[in-house]
Amino acid sequence: MSWTVDPATAFRHALAPEDRQRIPRYAALLSEWESSTLAGDLLLAAPATQRNPMLMLAALHFEARRGHPQLAELFRDISVIEPVTWAQAVHLALCDEPELITKHLHRRTQTNELGRSASYDYLLRSLVDPDENWIRPRSAGPTSASISPSPGRSASGVRQPRGGRAASTAFPSRRR
């Protein structure tokens, strides 16, 4: 039976055997979904061209990166939680809020688009609220900017004055 009409088969074969060893928490979640009516219904509700378990995983990762309370904690601690326990907790979050996935399944999406968007979203939120994150905008002159990887230091590691603005002579101001 085709995996576009049989969700259990789709979840079972979404990862290659070596990938099941390499990413055991996603493997456990896909195994959890094999017997889940909800996960199967969510997959079948998507257009046939979008019936990809990877898209479901990407949607959950996207929501975790966007700060969903349960998922953010589970994905933050992904390497320390036992795979089956992690998968069950993620599945329970999905059972509580199926729209975590449904809102992503009905548009044309590349499976990595959600991951890239989550990274950009985190970066942009970091720039808007620099006191809460490790990324700091740094001025390098009137026509460019860079990002500093740690508070109070420039990308080159030079200590910045309070306020996060580095003095720069690389681009002398132009007077007209």
Short description:
The chain is mainly alpha-helical and 176 residues long.
Describe it for me?
The chain is mainly alpha-helical. It is built from 9 helices and 2 strands. Helix 3 crosses helix 7, helix 5 packs across helix 6 and helix 5 crosses helix 8.
Secondary structure tally, helices: 9
Distance between the termini: 73 Å
Succession of helices and strands: HHHHHHHHHEE
Poorly predicted segments: 133-161, 164-176
The strand count comes to 2
* Coarse morphology: globular
Helix-strand blueprint:
Blueprint: H1 7-12, H2 17-22, H3 24-34, H4 37-45, H5 53-65, H6 69-76, H7 83-96, H8 99-105, H9 113-128, E1 136-139, E2 145-148
What features would you highlight for this structure?
176 residues; mainly alpha; two-stranded antiparallel ribbon; disordered C terminus
